[in-house]
Fold Putative gluconeogenesis factor.
Amino acid sequence: MTAPRIVALGGGHGLYATLSAARRLSADVTAVVTVADDGGSSGRLRAELGMIPPGDLRMALAALAGEDPRSRLWADVVQHRFGGNGALAGHSVGNLVLAGLTEVLGDPVLALDELGRVLDVAGRVLPMSPVALDIEADVSGLEEDPRVSRVIRGQVAVATTPGKVRRVRLRPADPPATESAVRAIERADLVVLGPGSWFSSVLPHVLVPDLFAALAATAARKVLVLNLGPEPGETAGFSAERHLHVLSQHAPGFRVHHVVVDSASVPPGSERDHLARAAALFGADVVYADVASDTLRTHDPAKLADVVASWTGGTPSSDRKDTSSWP
């Protein structure tokens, strides 16, 4: 039986969980990763070297790394972050390796493929765009007049704003998509979008014109995984329904088949009725399931794989304990 072709779009913690779930179902997994991070080690390397930010890409590689001892060792190495107070403090080994490979090979996709071979990655990790992007947001609540919006620029600034994010844009506008990412979406059997920081990790994918066109044209079954709850900063106070309305506003006409919601996050009652109406904007049904980790406020990869398995024709493989921490 041919392994289902799964494409997961996102960034950060959410994408790590999705990839950890997808690898239980298939060895043909492609991660399409946001490239707008401007903080920490990624932000420093982006500013100093003019490269796409490597942090979320590195984490996706770690999520798909092989299970043998050598691959797990290398996964731990690329995740290792230097301490101290010198020039290397705060940098992760994997970010520096990707920076070096990109300079030597002259192409970030070739660099990711090369490090993927070292890690025996089950699939492929691709940037959503070959150029570094900036997120720009209209934010209200920062002025005395609550009706006045201010433009905030940068992923970190948007994610941590005390105001209310109304709308986001990418800069440069209408950026190019990575061609291999477009092809992966077009040939996929299953596409998963989310969970993740809604404005800075999820929405950017539908704001890249060629990615949005591929998502609209693909014959793949499309699944949207909602967050377990609002995040401080950009989605503070958001209901599950509000997440869907915001996505619809940024991507008119976007269609998905299923919206996966943690059953404990939206208890039975009127809120589920509202959510069903919001999902209808996408032509989707709402699937409630226990997908939350028992100990952390994150999605549990094994539980998520159990839900997704019915749409791939696959059976989740034996559970793997995720040992990589999020720095």
In short: The CA atoms of residues 83 and 89 lie 5 Å apart. The chain has two domains: 1-28+175-313, 36-127. The chain has 13 helices and ten strands.
